[in-house]
Design a protein that fits this description.
Elements: H1 2-5, H2 30-37, H3 44-51, H4 66-80
């Protein structure tokens, strides 16, 4: 369960969240400006929840016996709301 707690998702899980992604380039100091603007806002929980909202149980991520995997799926669903697949 500790391993799944750190699992934020796979690339496919983040597709919608990254739809408007703009890379941070040296010629554009947008990230530095936004970081300073957000100082002391303490939005980390909201950001984490937003970035992991679409995560799903990571099929094929680890190889374990079926009974243990079923238990992990239930725990993942119960603790983090990840949908069953």
């Amino acid at each position: 369960m500790d391993l799944l707690r750190a699992f934020a998702g796979r690339r496919a899980d983040a597709t919608a969240w990254l739809a408007d992604f703009q890379p941070n380039l040296d010629r554009d100091l947008r990230l530095e400006y936004l970081a300073g603007e957000a100082l002391n806002r303490h939005d980390e929980v909201a950001i984490y929840n937003d970035t992991t909202a679409e995560r799903a149980y990571p099929d094929g991520f680890i190889r374990i016996d079926p009974a243990t995997e079923r238990a992990l799926r239930r725990m993942s669903r119960d603790r983090y709301g990840t949908p069953e697949q």
